[in-house]
Amino acid sequence: MASVTGSSFAISSLSSSFNPNKACLKTSSLSIKGISFPSLRVKPATRRFSISCAAKPETVDKVCEIVKKQLALPSDSAVNGESKFIALGADSLDTVEIVMGLEEAFGITVEEENAQTIATVQDAADLIEDLVAKKC
User: Fold this and answer.
1) For residue 46, is it within any domain?
2) What sequence ranges are listed for the domain Carrier (predicted)?
3) Which structural domain, as residue segments, surrounds residue 113?
């Protein structure tokens, strides 16, 4: 096992530039007190534009009410976007029933692979808004 000890560490003269018209790798080398380390490679990110937003508060509130109903929770139960289905006492069958309730309430169809990614109320609300937007 190797270790590096010392009171200071400095990297100088490292620079990189990105030209979106060229898909190339930039390589820099690192040397500390005369010891060379393997080259560091920086690969530019692919050009992609994406926006991710949280679901509207109204959607989250509606999902909270559906979750409370499906799990037969008291109306004063604290359920919010960060609430995890498991923490609320939901098992896998309850989660399927929640998804079915959401499909009915929002007029959507949730594919099985998408349903398996839902762990929180916020996950469900985000997925619903995504599916509703695709439906339009």
Assistant:
1) no
2) 57-132
3) 57-135
